[in-house]
Design a protein that fits this description.
about 325 residues, Arc Repressor Mutant, subunit A, Rossmann fold, 8-stranded mixed sheet, 14 helices, 10 strands, ArsR-like_HTH, Transcriptional regulator, WH-like_DNA-bd_sf, WH_DNA-bd_sf
Length: about 325
């Protein structure tokens, strides 16, 4: 950063509205219209604020289907940007703003539920163009097995699909729960896992589990996070649901530009940058354990990220060394 860039860099966050925008973006990515409604600001005014923040390097924009969403920058200029974001996350948003955020998440959630209700039978056909479970499942399981846990009592899989991974979790944990917002997808999972004795499948989301004070030793997301309305908030829920020393295992697409996935696969997000996931994890109070990347066909790449909820004593919780890059052939 040059000397003449310093004044606009700091001036950009000297406005209360722009600071609130950065606070809101800690809860996920939002479009101009959504931010205008959240902060009760005219769309032209919000566009002006976002232009200032973007030019100074505080926010980034990206296209998701036909919409453009804004998020916090992944950079750390002068070594203070991420510290500012963490400080902002320490302040609660006003209650009316929290309610509006909840309304947006609920609307996105309902859209995702409606998609899977009407496309459950054909969903796997479209997924074949991206990645199927047998391409990434064994790697994810190997990575999970390389991490030692203080307990193997309770595991949760969010969005288990047809239930391919539930059997592996059932073999390793005393109790396994699978939750999905789609009843149609849960019905498919039930038909594949009917013989598993200590498995509980239910229609719910992580927010509901948090309200029930549920706790787990491992939480798994297999190609699900790009479907959820607010991925950053999802990781916050996971941090609340995990026991100390517990693991969050996220397997998902790296960032891509194949927009057909929005309409045909119901994707809300076109994958994620690894640093984006790491940023959300840090904000939720989780530590990064391991990463793996799988090179796949059709230009897609799958990543598996493992995060851990810290404990006072960490000597028994380290992961064994593993390659950071694996290639499927």
């Amino acid at each position: 950063m040059t000397l003449d860039q310093l004044p606009p860099f700091f001036k950009a966050i000297g406005d209360p509205i722009r600071l609130t925008v950065l606070q809101v973006l800690g809860h996920g990515a939002f479009g101009v219209l959504e931010l205008s409604e959240l902060l009760e600001t005219r769309q032209s005014g919000m566009s002006h604020h976002l232009k200032i923040l973007s030019k100074a390097g505080w926010v980034e924009s990206r296209r998701e289907g036909n919409s453009i969403y804004y998020r916090r920058a992944l950079t750390d200029r002068l070594g203070i940007q991420q510290q500012v974001f963490r400080s902002l996350d320490g302040y609660e948003l006003p209650e009316d703003l929290q309610r509006k955020l909840a309304d947006i998440r609920q609307a996105r959630l309902q859209a995702a539920e409606a998609f899977f209700a009407s496309h459950a039978d054909e969903f796997e056909l479209h997924q074949e163009r991206i990645a199927l479970f047998h391409q990434y499942g064994p790697e994810t399981l190997q990575l999970l097995d390389s991490c030692r846990l203080p307990k193997h009592r309770r595991a949760l899989e969010v969005g288990p699909g047809k239930g391919d991974f539930l059997t592996a979790l059932h073999d390793r944990f005393d109790s396994v729960t699978g939750v999905d917002i789609s009843r149609a997808m849960l019905d498919q999972a039930r038909s594949q896992t009917s013989g598993l004795s200590h498995l509980n499948l239910r229609q719910a989301d992580t927010g509901q589990l948090v309200s029930e004070a549920a706790h787990f030793d491992v939480i798994v997301y297999n190609m699900v996070l790009h479907h959820v309305p607010a991925p950053g908030q999802e990781l916050v829920h996971c941090a609340q649901l995990l026991n100390d020393g517990g693991l969050l295992v996220v397997t998902d697409l790296c960032r891509h530009d194949q927009e057909w996935a929005h309409n045909q696969c119901g994707d809300q997000w076109l994958g994620f940058e690894p640093d984006e996931l790491h940023q959300w994890a840090r904000a939720a109070g989780l530590d990064t354990e391991q990463s793996r990347f799988l090179a796949l066909r059709n230009g897609f790449q799958v990543q598996t990220q493992v995060y851990r909820k810290p404990v006072a004593t960490e000597s028994t919780l380290d992961c064994e060394p593993a390659d950071t890059l694996s290639t499927l052939t």
